[in-house]
Amino acid sequence: MALDDRDYMRPNQNRWNAKRWNDRKTRVELDDSKPLGSASWIGQDPSEAVKSKHPGFAGSPKPKGKAGPWFEPKNRGFDYQKNRWRPGQAKSRPAWLSYLPLGLGALLIAIPMFGDGKRHGWLPDVEREVTFPNSGSVTVARDLSMKRVTSSLVVQTSDANAVVQLYDPETHQHVFSVYVHGNDRVRVPVPRGTYEMRLIEGMKWHGPERFFGRNTAYETVARPMVFEHRGGNGIDLRRRPHGGLPTLQMMSDPDKL
Questions:
Q1: Is 218 found in the same domain as 150?
Q2: Number of folded domains that form the chain
């Protein structure tokens, strides 16, 4: 080997002598290797792209009151722990909310039961009872034209007496009422058209102003009732679990006739 060749190899030989053999791992370790966590970019100025994604890096804007790179002891964990997304901690809800579905279910059952109780006269009633009108008798609006009375209404009652009323759905004015005794069936002529039907039921009649007193059961049919020319419609007030005509309880008192 020439002299120039030996001089060329001398730096490599010096580096080789600085190595330590790890027999167990069968590898070579260098004394000048860098410890874990001391990557070469720490303390250096990264690219603008890196700065935009990692505001805690050196050379990028840092939180107020903080200085130095991300891994410095005084900043360790600040940007990482506080500036990352974390799901919010669930807030405890009031205990009564757990019973809300149960309460609503009980209310949906209690309202029809209360209406049925009034229909059968369960509430105390000390008012003077008067004679209920004959089945099939009617009360009509004064301005009702008899030329419109070309349809018919059939009413089948339950144990309670009933007053079945038709109201104009636009003006909410009374048009027609028919009185039917309990456990009776009638057919009466009615004016053709589409109406809002209201049902008033009870046992002890107190007149066209008080109706059935404290035990007045007052409902409205959920959908409009249509009475066609030379046609008709009807309602059966004998309640069944799967009846085909849903009704809504009215919280107000019926209009005086």
A1: yes
A2: 2
